[in-house]
Amino acid sequence: MKPLLVAVMLVAAAMPAYSQSTESESLQQRDQKLFVMGGRMGQSDMGEMFNPFTATYEDTLVFGAGYQRYFFEPFDDFKVGLEVGAALRVDEQITGEGWAGIVGRYDGWVLADRLRLSPSLVFGGSVVTQTIGVEAEREANDGLPGDILFYLSPEISLSTLDNPNSEVFWRLQHRSGAWNTFGGGGTANATMLGIRTSF
Asked: Quick one: which of 46, 47, 96, 135 is 20 to 30 A from 55 by CA?
């Protein structure tokens, strides 16, 4: 758990200094977002989970919340920032997950002059209090720890041009050792639906 805690502490320490150095940027480039979401853990691998209608699921429910802050916009309509979040995974037992990472988001797709479709991707680290379900089975089969793994979360969100500060989204929650480069056991996926507000 120490590598993830050190990474989170470094990010937290860097945020105030980085914020001060970018005070001249517009509010849009530094916007903040809060979100809540819920979903279900899957037995399928990541590729199969991209189609939530055909994926195979476990009984484990997931309820989470998170915070995003965007610091700069390197290209038109593309923003980069940080995300932190936490979730409860509820089955016969309750386990917890926390994650932190870099988020990139593109806001340039507009549909019918009314809707904005925004893909994004979060990459970072994930820690759980205990592996659960098929995640625990994979950890045992691999013989590698699954408590701290990489975190990867592709997402699609939808908002209206009239109310851009509120949106709904679908997210694939994925944690793995990335071919055993960091831990290895306990690969897990979940399909999540959520709502987000910006301020």
From this structure: 96
CATH number for the domain that contains residue 28: 2.40.160.20
The CA-based diameter of the chain, rounded to the nearest angstrom, is 52
Beta bridge partners of 95: 89
* Boundaries of domain holding 182: 2-198
Number of domains observed in the structure of the chain: 1
Mean pLDDT of 158-163: 95
Name residue, tokens 């306990």. Answer: 186
pLDDT in tens, 40-71: 999 988 888 999 899 999 999 999 999 999 99
Q: 91-106 burial, b for 16+ CB within 10 Å, e for fewer?
A: eeeebebbbbbebebe
Task: Dump pLDDT digits (tens) for 108-156.
Answer: 999 999 999 999 999 999 999 998 888 888 888 877 778 889 999 999 9
Alpha helices in the chain (DSSP H): 2-21, 46-49, 134-142
